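Colleagues,

For the teaching module next term, I've prepared a clean inverse folding example: a structure given as tokens, and then the sequence designed for it. I'd like students to try predicting residues themselves before seeing the answer, so please don't circulate the second half yet.
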């Protein structure tokens, strides 16, 4: 069982309030608080449905044992470090040469390097994989994600009692399908 925690949250939103105001053709700033809530909700829903993290951030994935191979359940990510609790109780950083991290179908999979095995873990020890997550500003999938957030935010703003948003669903499916 793995758990992912945010160590350093993103510093920005992928879509600004000004961009959302332009999408909705709003000139005033009196509904910015509501608009910000809708932007955050749309981003959270997109990230959950497509298993992505949009903006640069640092995450930690915690494991209780070494599986033969494991997959990081969010994307895009790179491995910053892998640490584990050794048998003596010390926290040790696994050298990069001791493991292989490869992206398959958009997800990073990690396994021991050829001819090696995972080190012995202390009883009640844990493994922490520190991840750098998020799209580069010029990545084409970020443009799809931004469009999805804009249409979902507009839908939430204009239909405050709640309504489906086919355009959002279509863009999320397109984003998810690009990674399969």
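(Answer key — instructors only)
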């Amino acid at each position: 069982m793995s758990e992912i925690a945010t160590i350093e949250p993103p510093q920005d939103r992928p879509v600004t309030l000004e961009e959302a105001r332009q999408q909705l053709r709003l000139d005033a700033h009196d509904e910015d608080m509501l608009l910000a809530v809708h932007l955050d909700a749309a981003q959270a829903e997109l990230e959950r449905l497509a298993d992505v993290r949009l903006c640069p951030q640092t995450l930690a994935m915690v494991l209780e044992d070494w599986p033969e191979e494991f997959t990081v359940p969010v994307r895009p990510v790179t491995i910053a470090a892998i640490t584990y609790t050794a048998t003596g109780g010390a926290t040790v950083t696994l050298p990069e040469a001791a493991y292989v991290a490869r992206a398959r179908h958009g997800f990073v999979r990690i396994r021991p390097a050829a001819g090696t095995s995972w080190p012995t873990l202390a009883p009640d020890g844990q493994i922490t994989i520190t991840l750098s997550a998020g799209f580069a500003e010029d990545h084409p999938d970020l443009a799809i994600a931004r469009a999805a957030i804009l249409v979902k935010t507009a839908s939430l703003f204009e239909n405050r009692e709640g309504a489906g948003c086919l355009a959002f669903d279509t863009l999320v499916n397109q984003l998810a399908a690009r990674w399969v």
